[in-house]
Amino acid sequence: MYWLVGSLVIIAMMGVLAVADNVAMPIDMPLLNVVSATGLLWLLVIFAIILLSATQLNSLSVNTQSTNKTRSVSSPNDVKLSLFSKYFLFGLLAIALVVGSALQALVAHQQAETTKITDSIRVQALVRIEGISDSVYDASTDSGYRQVAVVTHLMPLVAELTPQDLANSTSDYSKEENNSLSKSYSDNFEKKPNNHIEYRVLLNAYPKNTSNNDSFSSLNDLQPGDELFMSLALVPLSTSKQAISNSSGFDGYRWLRGRHIDGVANILAVSPLTVSKSNNDEALQQASTSDSYFQRFRTRIDIGRWQLRDHFYRDWPAQTTAEQQARAVTLSLLTGDRSLINRDTKDLYQLAGISHLLAISGTHVLFLAIVLGGAVVLLFNRLCPVVYRYMPRWQVRWWVMIGAAFIYALFTGFDVPAARTAWMLLAIGLVRLTLLPISTMRVLLALAVLMAWQDPYVLWQAGYWLSFIAVALLLKYEDTSYQRNTAAAPLPYNDDARAYISNVLFRRALQIAQRIFKLQFWLFLTLLPITLLLFGKASLWGLIVNLFAIGLFGWVIVPLNLLAGLFYLLSPTIADRIWSLVSAIVGNLHELIGWLTSLPALTDAWLYTPVNMAILLMMLLSIVPWLLPRGLLSRWLALPPLTLLMMTVYANQQSMITMPTLYILPTGDPYISAALLQFPLHNQSVSNSKDGSSLAKDNTSWLFLADHRPTATRTMPSNLTADKLSVSLEQQLGSLSVDKLEGIIVQSSSTVLTDTLNASEQNMVVSAKNSELLPLAVAQLNQQLPVSQYWQAGRSERWSAFQQASKIAAQSKGKTNISAQGCEQGKTWQVASGDLSIQAMTGWSEIGDTSVWDCTIAIDSSVPIQVLRYNAADPLKSLSVNSQTKIADKQLDTDHKNLSLSRLVLDTDTHPRVWQMWSLLCSADSNNDSMRFKNITWLGHSASQLTTDVISRQSINDIITYDDKPLEASLSLNIINNGVDAEAMSP
Q: Taking the model in full, what pTM does it have?
């Protein structure tokens, strides 16, 4: 019952948060206005104590009655009434806990809704830095600045402010704060309607998104507690780029909501002065008089974290990238500050399956607490043993361990794993102090429920689930391992003492190795479902790398790192020497992991299996017999849910390839599009029009890439790189169970692949695209999975040299090269049965004008192709893309309506000349082809140069855009069609 009630409490809170976040609810609810989150928390704690006490007294009374059953005999009716009343009381308390927990989650949701930013607006605001930044600003490495802050004194921005204007505002505000006689500036703020509004936001500043790179470099100097004026662009979470689920499946929206972020603030300008620096040394204390003692204490701890990061960041440009990342990981293992770790190192740890080692876990906190507790006890033993007359030795060690654990947890950001360890130490000590018969597993569950009651949004943090589940699995494994070890027979004694000792040592080493492997295998399998649910993928390398990495980090790197941290308080010189040793060990570890993960035979290390809540529900049903008291339900009842679970996982895998589907994949750039076509062939053969060869396949997959930036319009430069794009596409393809591609079609031309344009031809180009992004991404994808064909728009005679250079840069030797075929108008690929064909509608590279090189693709199929927008967080829940414009064709005859063929047009055009050329050369043929199709769907970008005349000539029925913005040509056409419909309906 204990585990059942705790599980229902957490499930109820998760359900309320999920439903409340997806369903529009009124903010002003009478019940929620009366209920206080703090009061409800204490009420839930009281109910839980009453339930625990009642169940404990009930078990004691049952034991007493069983021992004294011969002395008194009660009537059966009295016994039944007593049992009914007890279970009724238990059930009532359990229901009250579940309902109260759901109400607590609803209150937390409503509080977050009342404080969130609802509209985008540009403001001038007073910004107070909270904690340390998530990353540092570095234009050389394209690293942006991300920092949690509190903004107040908001005033709408009516004109662009310079840093000097903001500095004047900061200086005036500082003077008025220290001058209690003059209130003119403060009164000016009081008159503003948004003066009392306060938001907790995530500040953002990226090098390529602004021209103020020099002024933004000072953002790295901001310390926790600093106050200054900034001009900001406030954006709601629901529409911000940082909150929308990106291509890797990371749910940024839930991550920000879990950190109680009200919105995103893009920095426009920064004051070079801060409030605390423009006054005397007591300015920070005066500015924080309204804060609680705990907030001021935590601010000073965060300042210490910032100073330690600044110590590591010294001479940063003078070091190599490998040395920088070794020091960055060393800092992360000490304070949990991962701001200096770049994307490549994070990807390396993810591929190796040891990214959990970068976080401050219970091992760090517990090790420091044990060391300090032992050191204090040793000092008392030597210097002041009289203390033990008033307090037992274990209590002295316990209090020291608690203090060290909480202080270090605060120093590392008080994340869930560190906070869980500190609270566990306190709870286990209280259980021992009060002699309560409560197991460690129950303490762990109670702590998980309490943390959820205190902050329901902690349920949206991956660290919460991984931390508690991992500790529960370790405790369960230790219990079973201890029972087996105690039951094992000892080794018989041998007369030869040396041989006996050797056998004992060998057997002990073998047992340790077996325990480590079994433990790692146990943790990997049991954490696999929750890992797939939270991250969408799992690295198979983790099963191997963790065997030695956990021991290396736990017994060598972390102890040395903590020792250096203690020496840093006494002698920074000695600390730097120890940190140099730690960085050298970490650097060698990076080289070893990089070599292992680059082995050609072991490159496919990712496991992609979509896991949703239905699968987790079936897993929960399968373990219900183990959660209930023994004997209440037969454990054989777990067999049906397990069978259904395996069938569901298999069905989910097969469902992705049974329906012809085109997935619109996110790329991170609004002008770069990627689309994946999956078409089931049912053991048919496919044929290539080039050589006529055929090959039997179950399904075929094609990847379409395009750059839709118009040549005649200036757009924001892209932050996307070929490395990011290829890694993102590889992960998305893996999550969709695509391990090979029939072909990749790059629909946009790239002049970097040709050198045949002479000076006169180049003058004809309005704006030639020299980007090598898409071809380089193709070259990198070809090194990761088999690709049969590669179509490239425009001229590509330099592709071979370009591909070889990319392989040399990536140090890849195991993969074969792929030849580039021209994506020219009329080029066709089709299956033998004719159920699917792909042909190029545009593309004339023989003309020396890159504006007509872009290649529009037509996909003809016997079955309509559904278009889905890929959901990175849950590929099984990819949503259908609705047509933005439906064009009704009233001239369809009966034979035309009975046609089964459908056409999907993937448009790529960056200049009007593409469709002007098509109208001259191919318009007549297109009119004849359009009569063969029942439905024609157009998919392109809102910046397309498509005209209303081309839409009519192609008989397009539906129009869809990659960026979900309306196509200009379709708007006028839609107005015309509406007018025709109105005339037809009029009498």
A: 0.77
